[in-house]
Amino acid sequence: MNEANHNKDYSVVKTFKSPSSFNTGAFFLSKNEQKLFLIIKKNLHLSDKKNADMIHKKRVVNYHLLIKMSILILALFVLVAEGYARAGGGGGGGDGGGEGLGQIIYFILFTIPFPYNVILIGVIILLYYLGRKKARQRSVLNKMNENAPLVPKGEEEFYKNNPDFKLEDFYGRVRTAFMGIQNAWSSGSMNPVRRFISDGVYQRFNTQFRMMKQLEVTNKLDKIELLDVRVFGYEPDGEYDVIHVAVSASLEDKFVSTKYSELNSGGGEAFLEYWSFIRKKGVAEKNIYSNNNCPQCGAELPTDMGEISKCAHCGAITAMGDFDWVLCEITQADDFIFQNRKITSYDSGHIRKVRSMIGDIPGLSIQHIEDKVANGFLQIQTARTHKDPAMLRRFVSDELYQKLEEQIKNEAPFVYNRIYLNDVTVTGANKDGNKYSIKVAVKMSFQRVDISSGKLIKLDYAVMSDTWMVNMLYESDDKASKGSLYAHTCPNCGGTLGDTIDIKCQWCGSVLNAVKGEWIISSLIEPGYMTFNAGMADAIETDQGGFGVLANAEKLDDLLDVRDFAFNNVAVMIAIDGKITDEESALLRSLSKKWGYNVNKIEPMISLAINNRLPIRMPDNPKKREKIIKLMEKAAQVDGNVSEEEQQLLDRMRKDYLN
User: Quick one: which H or E segment has residue 594?
Assistant: First the structure.
């Protein structure tokens, strides 16, 4: 290279010698590229012409230089990976990462002498490819269908506090619960298993039974096989312990309507669910799974307990976890993996702050509060479909009752063909003296239909998913509660309550929704009207002058990327007609590979889609919604044929989520 050419090359470097000149000349450098230049300038000693001449003329392999080149390569890898994560979003649909790589290569080509520039470019391209592949595989969907950890989280602490715990005995209870619940569901009555399922779990089944009765639908299960049971994790919850169990099983699952054949669906299904069990710490276990006797007095329990899991002789409540492990939650694999454990875990920093705010309430359990919310929320939905506000009167405030009564009166009739609670999570708490307020996010999947004309009209073309915010009030007193409004028993006297608009107990005359000694639902904020500006678990001042904590509800979906939402919704769209053809299956596998998913890990999601149980999911961010719908439209057009059902779903989503 002659002196003139060398000076010309070196002048390019000199053009960018100061930060103020990074946007001058023939180039425009981003912040990452500015960092890159400074690293090159520092490590290759190109800050003056003398060092540049030495490198160009001698072409000597300098071991000192090679060491610095290695440092440079590592720094470049970090910058490239950082640039990809922002530009391409790990699958967000953008291609900006490739453009950034091209700019970096162009810059290196003209600032580093041959042959080091060629070597460095080759290494960067390789690292970029590997980093891109790894980033694409970082999706939360690739955690679905994973085996339970060999050492479950919280195991050591749990066994320290429960030295007599026998895992095999516990697994025996889980197996009994699983088979018993499948048989009870298939028969249409949860009475045989009522003693060991919580009020909230009972209400989830009972709500579906009521909807199925209106639609004349039965759900028969056959060839039930429990494949595996493994503890996934242990969590403390105040005076209680919670164990999460991964349950793998297979069965034939068929929904059949004698009146509306378009609701018929189902088939063979292998699935993974997470079952959560709760029990009070330190209690001597009394096995409520092996017989139907009261764990407190030994008398035979009623065979038709229904809403109330209560002994008729001594009044003991069996389904609170005070005597034995009780099933308090059933979560589908996708919902469990999608949970943001920084908010949902009972041992998270957020929940610890909530507990510090309301922890002086006797016997406080976050799971029990969430169970009440699930129970009450579903009874509100049932009241809406049955046009009967008396179903919800006892556990809502007077102000909320007036609003719901008006809503029930005026809204068009509908029935839920599908209704599931995906997640119920405490997101905030306030305290003012002896008065408390809890905010709970309820994520529900649903599909509504209208049968008022005698014909079935689908109001939702697919199973949808939305989040409601429920606010609950509580005022502490010195008296221990003797019942629960959500289980049709008076907190003051324990008397049995019916569905009535009378808010006074027929036995003791106490006002049922007076918030003393019981959590009352005071407000229900519907999707689209929620704004949560506080950061996760930040301290906030309440209107009443007390203090509280509030988690940003958008954080509940933090683990999902744009491509995750899109793939979920594409699976729903493809299976919207109740089947997946070979071509559609090939499309899903192609998308899986393109977007970095492990096909074996996402099989449960596809199975849920085929059985009309996978909901449409959308984030709150409008820009992300636009990207997701565009990806769905591209997927629908891959085979050159957009079906009527697919087009209706896309049109409905644009109307509901973008307008």
Answer: helix 582-594
Confidence of residue 605 (pLDDT cuts 50, 70, 90): confident
How far is 14 from 138, CA to CA, in rounded Å? 40
Rounded Cα distance, 610 and 624, in Å:
26
Q: What CA–CA distance (Å, rounded) separates 457 from 128?
A: 51
**CA 89, 92, 97, 99: dihedral to nearest 10 degrees?**
-150
Domains 140-335 and 339-556 share a fold: yes
- Report pLDDT digits (tens) over 410-446: 999 999 999 999 889 898 888 888 889 999 999 999 9
Average pLDDT over every residue of 450-473: 92
pLDDT for 560 equals 65
Q: Kindly give the interhelix angle for 63-87 and 31-43, rounded to the nearest 10 degrees.
A: 170
140-335 carries CATH number 3.40.50: no
Phi, psi angles (nearest 5°) of residue 280: -70, 140
What sign results for the dihedral spanned by CA atoms 618, 622, 623, 626?
Answer: positive
β 326-332/538-541 pair status: unpaired
Tokens describing residue 629: 């719908």
Q: Where is pLDDT greater, at 114 or 288?
A: 288
Most confident of 12-21, 77-86, 518-527: 518-527
Decide: helix, strand or coil at residue 178. helix
Label residue 480 exposed, middle or buried (CB < 10 Å: 0-12, 13-18, 19+): exposed
ω into 413 cis (within 30 of 0): no
| Closest listed residue to residue 285, CA positions, set 318, 325, 320, 317 | 325
Average pLDDT score, the chain: 77
**What mean pLDDT do residues 509-517 have?**
88
Residue 516 is classified by DSSP as B
Assign 163 to helix, strand or coil.
coil
Q: Is residue 367 within a helix (H) or strand (E), and if so which, with residue range?
A: helix 366-386
User: What residues are paired with 530 via a beta bridge?
Assistant: none
How many Cβ atoms sit within 10 Å of the Cβ of residue 426? 26
Q: How far apart are alpha carbons 430 and 512 in whole angstroms? A: 22
3-state secondary structure of 126: helix
Between residues 428 and 58, the one the model is more confident about: 428
Q: Does residue 206 have a pLDDT over 70?
A: yes
**Rounded to an integer, what is the distance from CA 343 to the centroid of its chain?**
11
Q: List, for residues 236-279, the tens digit of each pLDDT value.
A: 998 999 999 999 999 998 889 999 998 988 777 788 899 999 99
Map out the domains of the chain as residue ranges. Answer: 3-136, 140-335, 339-556, 562-657
Question: Which residue type, as a one-letter code, is found at position 610?
Answer: I
Cβ atoms of 34 and 41 within 8 Å: the answer is no
Contact between residue 604 and residue 271 where contact means Cβ atoms under 8 Å apart: yes
**Closest by CA position to 195, among listed 42, 299, 79:** 299
Which residue blocks in 411-561 are alpha helix, DSSP H? none
Higher pLDDT, 420 or 487: 420
CA distance 211 to 230: 33
Give the type of residue at 606: I
Q: Model pTM greater than 0.70?
A: yes
Residue 135 to residue 142: CA distance in whole angstroms: 12
- The pLDDT value given to residue 598: 77
Q: Cα–Cα distance between 460 and 464 in angstroms, integer?
A: 7
Q: Report pLDDT for 461.
A: 86
Q: Provide Rg for the chain, Cα atoms.
A: 30
Distance of CA 563 to the CA centre of its chain: 16
Fold of 339-556: Nuclear Transport Factor 2; Chain: A, (3.10.450)
Q: What is the pLDDT of residues 389-419, one digit of tens each?
A: 999 999 999 999 999 999 999 999 999 999 9
